[in-house]
Amino acid sequence: MNNLYFYTILIVSLVLFLIGIYGVLTRRNAIGILMSIEIMFNSANINLVAFNKFLHLEASIGIIFPIFIITLAAAETAVGLALILSIYRKLKSVYVEKMDLLKW
Amino acid sequence: MDLLSIISKVPVTYLIFLVFAVIAIAAAFLVVSVKSVMHAALFLAVFLLSVAAMFFIFDADFLGIVQILLYVGGVIVLILFAVMLTARVQSHLLQQTNEQKFMAMFVCGLLFIMLSYVILTSGLQGFEKSVLQGGVTRDVGRLLLTVYVLPFEVASVVLLAALIGAMAIVGKKDE
């Protein structure tokens, strides 16, 4: 029973991660891509917390890592949205196919 | 009667987890597929709250509170502000996905087959851990100030750098 529970959690977080990948690959809007990245971060966090609960770890390492992930994700979102707003001022667009200045 | 005995053996937390898993997957799917970016941001809030509920179910109560405070309280507000500041180009009539839709579905399906095969043949044995005395929060606090004090301080420096960097990028006056 516990094994079924554990593997269900892993499969659910895998499905969430793949939805995030799908969003990153198909969204045209840069803000939409950032939101998909947040989904991927959260699915990784679910995985780590499940490992902490179901595998016998010495200490609560599976709680410590998601704290750092959440912190860095917040920093990443702040910088990413700042970049998107600054690009929006220059190009008047948030669609990624317009951001081709460095494209060869 | 056989089915009933199976159901009575299922722990309640598993059923609650399944409910929140369905909510989370549906909300995440709507985030990547809905046309209006504003609605996508609100569905992202639903997704993040159901993930916080999952953390509570898995005895990580501190992490659930951090998730609600930082994500639903901070990141969602930031994203909503960014969506509203760029509202002029966020029309419902615009196509929000590119032409790689079926290729992306193919890649995701392939990855799902590969990774679920790896997970199901990994042979990991999951035992439910007994809850620590005084909850997991005490353990986390002790670890953050002893073993993981260096990453903790580095994370604070990273946050400060990100704050200053975001202000320097956005707050520049146009010449």
Please name the defining characteristics of this protein.
heterodimer; A: about 100 residues; mainly alpha; Helix Hairpins; 3 helices; about 80% helix; elongated; B: about 180 residues; Four Helix Bundle (Hemerythrin (Met), subunit A); 2 domains; 7 helices; about 75% helix; about 0% strand
Brief account:
The complex is a heterodimer of chains A (104) and B (175). With 104 residues, chain A is mostly helical. Chain A has a single domain, classed as Orthogonal Bundle (Helix Hairpins).
Descriptive report:
The complex is a heterodimer of chains A (104) and B (175). With 104 residues, chain A is an all-alpha fold. Chain A has one domain (2-98): Helix Hairpins, CATH 1.10.287. In chain A, 78% of the residues lie in helices and 0% in strands. Chain A is built from three helices and no strands. The longest helix of chain A is centred in the last third of the chain and has 31 residues, at 61-91. Chain B is an all-alpha fold. Chain B contains seven helices and no strands. In chain B, helix 3 (37-57) runs antiparallel to helix 4. The termini of chain B are far apart. The interface between A and B is large, with 75 and 88 residues.
Subunit arrangement of the protein: heterodimer
CATH superfamily of the largest domain in chain B: NADH-ubiquinone/plastoquinone oxidoreductase chain 6, subunit NuoJ
Which value, in Å, is the CA radius of gyration of chain A?
Answer: 17 Å
Series of H and E elements of chain A: HHH
Give the low-confidence spans of chain A: none
CATH class of the largest domain in chain B: Mainly Alpha
* Largest β-sheet summary of chain A: none
Overall shape of chain A: it is: elongated
